[in-house]
Amino acid sequence: MSAPYLSIVAASRNDNHGGNTLQRMKLFVNGLIVQANRHQLPVELVMVEWNPPENQPLLQDVLPKPQPGDLLTINYIVVPRTVHEQYKRSSEIPLFQMIAKNVGIRRAKGEFILCTNIDLLFSDPLFRLLASRELRCDFFYRANRCDVPNEIDSESRVDEQLAWCAKNVIRRLGMDARFTNINLEQLGMNHRSDYQKWLLDKFAIALQLLWAPEKVRYYQLDSFACGDFTLMSREAWFKIRGYAELDLYSIHVDTLGLISAASMGYQQHIFPREACTYHLDHEQGWSTMTPVDKIRFLVERPGLDYGLVVEAGLAALQRKEPLPLNSANWGFADQQFAEYSFPHNESASA
Predict the structure, then answer these.
(1) Pick from 38, 58, 143, 265: most CB atoms within 10 A?
(2) Torsion sign across C-alpha atoms 263, 304, 332, 11
């Protein structure tokens, strides 16, 4: 069988993290099955199950399975507790999300690899762009994330779910492809007129004449919610050595991935607003926490300081070199994990 055009990499475990997780994962997988068939795009979903709970069934046993003839294939990779427990903060952080995604990137077979999360639906315009097979190897791609209430009808058809999402957007995260010099979410400008946005975008260009080139490049990165959608060629992911493998909570690690890609000369492309993802909002999501909640969360699960991310990003962009944080063995390249493939229901070793 020939390699798929697109591999989608996600990581999870069957522990109800974030609330109603299993239902959100079912919507995600079912949506991919329907969209791949509708748009006639062969897609490989690489689902990395990190540190699976001993008292719960594996994800392969509870999530929808593609059938023979479907254009989505699923490859589950199970990373056992023994690997998880190698990390100092393993008791506080049950899922090292970005390290898990690296396991998937390493083993993905697609020409292009999209790293995403397990509580998303992809809009039809977005999937249509993916199916056009016009992705470029010298770009990395971003799509807006539109948060919607976690009240979607799981029994309705995917068309109906997408229509409901489009009408019930709570917030939009990510830059507008029409105004690439400003971050509308950060500036509170999402609800202003296009003319006001255009004026501020032009003002930002003038302001950037006073900045060093690496500072301009950094603040043009579409880093808001980039862990939900970062797409580039397999070759590019391997050149940047995936995400930084840190014994920390995953906040801002996704931004380091964009920085590494940009530092190596890959150009950012932001998809149009209608080509977005829909994210099922949940109580424990970062965007729904109060500032006090976030402080308490990071006390228990330490993460990267954003000021340090900016400092490291400016240095990497100035040197035009990726951040040297991972070894050549990133993604546990030298280890074999149990793999289970569907629709053929075959098990193998990596």
Answers:
(1) 143
(2) negative
Contact 9, 108 (CB under 8 A): yes
What is this structure's pTM?
Answer: 0.92
d(CA 145, CA 281): 11
CATH topology of domain 6-174+222-349: Spore Coat Polysaccharide Biosynthesis Protein SpsA; Chain A (3.90.550)
Neighbours of 292 (CB within 10 A): 8
Helix (H) / strand (E) containing 38: helix 21-38
Q: What is the identity of the amino acid at 256?
A: L
Nearest Cα to 69, choosing from 344, 341, 346? 344
- One-letter amino acid at 74 equals I
254: which 2 tokens? 């996704």
Q: Which residues, 6+ apart, have CB-to-CB distance to 56 below 8 Å?
A: 14, 15
Residue type, 70: D
Mean pLDDT for 326-350 is: 81
C-alpha distances in Å from residue 181, one per residue of 121, 216, 246, 260? 28, 9, 30, 20
User: Which tens digits make up the pLDDT trace of 60-94?
Assistant: 999 999 999 999 999 999 999 999 999 999 999 99
* The pLDDT of residue 298 is above 80: no
What is the reported pLDDT for 166? 97
Backbone CA torsion sign across 284, 290, 295, 296: negative
